[in-house]
Amino acid sequence: MDKVDYRKGNYRAVADRLRPAAELLADWCAPQPGHLVVDVAAGSGNVAQLCASRSARVVAVDRVREQLLLGRQDDDAIYWVVGDALDLPLADDVADAALSTFGVIFANPPDQAVRELTRVCRSRGVVGVTAWPDAGFQHAARQAFQEVGAFASGGHDHLAAWGTPERLAQRLGPVADEVEVCTGTLHATFPTLGDWWRSRATTPPVMTARECLDDAGFAELARRLQEAARQFGTETEDGFVLEEGGGLSRGARSGSLTRPARWGCSRSVRLRLGTGQA
Ligand SMILES: C[S@@+](CC[C@H](N)C(=O)[O-])C[C@H]1O[C@@H](n2cnc3c(N)ncnc32)[C@H](O)[C@@H]1O
């Protein structure tokens, strides 16, 4: 197995966890009513649904049909298209924004994926991407998956390609007149570390690993992931809190950019902006 199989596990829980980042990206890139927005590697369409709720016209593209079907049950006002981020099924210069939350970062080679994001955008279009940081829990988890031989990610290391503010800026730099980068943190709260693991164990990466490892290999992966969560998480009065940082980048081909107006907040997950620069 060389890639995560997104048909496995409970993707809705993942989408809930990622939604605050999608809210921030949608706020930051600010699609207007009537704008055409492409949600690239859309999964169940976190970004697509937020933009549609602002009366933008939306095309949600993902290579996994089952992912798109999860979103379609919630919203019929979006065009859901099976397609590859490396070869988007759209003409040149049609979109006002091409956005991706933790999606296009998995497409390899990354430079081609970025070219596709910009190819489909009009000359005043905006490209926005969120990426996981090459640090903290994400870094430790990547090591764990690699070292137990869970799957090879098709030879692509998204943390190495996108995982710092500088790398995010460098990715969009060649295609945008202006690039801005912010960092943020997703906070997930569970009653206990054991509850965190029971939830994490249902996610597509862990479910994919379960299929390709023997019992001893999977037990080692589970041990390593929980160890990483213990290292980077915190026991609080509210329960076990795991912070997973991330970066957001926004590039515009021309036109002025403003700072993000607000950021998302929900009961158990919070996205907080730190500082970052292009
Ligand atoms: C972690 S999920 C994020 C999905 C969504 N953006 C969200 O916020 O929930 C990653 C998604 O990227 C998709 N994906 C990965 N590589 C892709 C590619 N080359 N082309 C299209 N979709 C891709 C996967 O199928 C999966 O749905």
Walkthrough of the structure:
37% of the residues lie in helices and 25% in strands. It has ten helices and nine strands. By secondary structure, the protein is of the alpha/beta class. It starts with 10 loop residues before the first helix and ends in a 5-residue tail after the last strand. Helix 1 crosses helix 2 (46-52) and helix 5 (136-147) runs antiparallel to helix 10. It has a domain at 11-133 and 156-190 and 245-273: Rossmann fold. The chain has helices at residues 11-29, 46-52, 65-72, 110-119, 136-147, 158-162, 165-172, 193-200, 204-212, 215-232; strands at 36-40, 57-62, 79-82, 95-101, 121-131, 178-190, 233-236, 239-252, 269-273. Strands 1, 2, 3, 4, 5, 6, 7, 8 and 9 form a nine-stranded mixed β-sheet that branches. Bound molecules: S-adenosylmethionine. S-adenosylmethionine binds at residues 6, 15, 18, 22, 41-44, 46, 62-64, 67, 84-86, 101-103, 106-107.
